[in-house]
Amino acid sequence: MNSKEHHNYNISYSSLSITYTYIIKLVEKILPHRRTPKYSYVYYLNNFMALLKEVTSYKALGNHKTTTSKYKFHYETIRKEFDRWTKHNIFELAAKEYIKDIFPNIDNSEIDSDTLTLFMDVVKINNISGSEGIGINSEYTKKNITPLSFICTNNKYPLACMPVNVDIVSTTQNIERKKNCDAKRDKKLQQNLDKIKYNKIKQLDATKKNIEKKLLREEKIKNDTLQQIEQKLISQQKRKEKQKNKKITAKKNNKIKKLTSEQETTIENTYLNEMNESYVLSKQQKEICNVKFVNNVANINKIHVLEIKKITRQFNKKEKNQIKKRQDIQKYEDSINKKICQHELSAVQTTLNNLPINLENIKLINIVGDGSYLTKQCFQLNGIPVHMIAPNKSNQLKNTSVENKQMLKLRYTIENFFASLKQYPRIYSRRERKLKNFMSCVYLALIDYIAKKIKIN
Question: For position 445, what pLDDT does the model report?
Fold first, then answer.
């Protein structure tokens, strides 16, 4: 496309390719021009195709040959236009119309007139910058993916595409597995907590016993010190009494003159005062010892309280770590159980409802899938019964029939279709943040893929 072609607003559909005609007709119907635009719809569609096939980001379109403007942030206008088209479901509607028109012309030699055999499977696309419809890969849990459910024919023509709802858990296996995981996790955590509590209680008992022993020792020391002090005081008092008695007797014997009554009273009073003073001193010493003992007991109690606080803090830290581990395990298991990207059977009915083909003369639809689609559920599409064909397990009583084996041998067609679809770099790895924008890229790739396949055939 030349640099001036985007200014031609009167488009001749005969000159356009098949991929362009279906899309641009819908754009002109749904989003007609209110005034003469600077860039035509064909110009924007060329940039969208370049983004799908050659370029990995919108910013890289500035240096691409499809862009003609020299404006630095011109890629933002292209991005806004792409968002506007996806908002009105233009790519989805165009793909459905294209599939509806082409389906009768497909050579389905292996399909009878009454029955229709289709192939169904899920593609897991690596996620880079997506935020919606993301799940964990069941094969490699470290990577996030976006699962898409496809239906195609035996000639590798895609008919329907739907994103798998990752938040729904419909299989009984996941629910049972979740219950078993929860039970095992609770048992392990309870055992660990019981062990920690038992060890901590032992430590607390040991510390209490040690503190009690310390207190008993200090009480003995206190009693011994008090007894020693009392014995010393008594011995001192006895000595003083003996000395005084000796002095008094010596004075009485040495003195010739008789003492008067007044003199005797003065001597007795002095003796009593000295005895009282010694008694007061002994009391003060006892009080000092009692104060020291009380202070020692208070210090011991403080130390005991601090030790208990330390032990409780350590226990609380370990308990908090256990709770954090439990929460992390629960988050991981919830992510696995709720957002595990297995072949969910909930996506079967949604993809069947998304089929745009006419089913007038068809009485039965056979859908061939892998072992994960083995169910007893009954599906319908516009009143037509849908029969799911999947390989039986080795431990089942019924073996797969010969007809089903022949159908299952053709499952390589859908896998080949996935390989050819992942040749588009925009689909091989998801770079769109919103799921709707990514699905518009998928529908655009489907239109281009079918058009190329028709040209080859």
Answer: 93
Contacts of range 107-112, beta carbons closer than 8 Å, 24 or more positions apart: 107/155, 108/153, 108/154, 108/155, 110/154, 110/410, 111/153, 111/154
Q: What is the pLDDT of residue 140?
A: 74
> Which residue type is seen at 202?
K
CA separation for the pair 245, 263 (Å, rounded): 16
Most confidently modeled of 137-141, 281-285, 367-371? 367-371
Report the distance separating Cα 278 and Cα 156, nearest Å: 118
Residue written as tokens 């994103």? Answer: 163
Helix (H) or strand (E) holding 228: helix 172-254
Residues 203 and 318: beta-carbon distance below 8 Å = no
Q: Which residues contact 230 (CB under 8 A, 6 or more apart)?
A: 282
pLDDT tens for 92-144 read 999 999 999 888 887 554 444 788 889 999 999 998 888 888 887 777 777 88
- Alpha-carbon distance of 181 to 337, in angstroms, equals 10
Spatial CB neighbours of 342, under 8 Å, sequence gap ≥ 6: 138, 171, 174, 372
- Would you place residue 214 in the very low, low, confident or very high pLDDT band (cuts 50, 70, 90)? confident
Q: Quick check: 449 and 422 in contact, CB under 8 A?
A: no
Give the span between the Cα atoms of 102 and 96, in whole angstroms.
10
Contacts of 381 (CB under 8 A, 6+ apart): 352, 353, 355, 359, 365
CA atoms of 47 and 61, how far apart (whole Å): 7
The DSSP code for 340 is B
DSSP 289-305: HHHHHHHHHHHHHHHHH
Looking at residue 87, its pLDDT comes to: 93
pLDDT at 10: 45
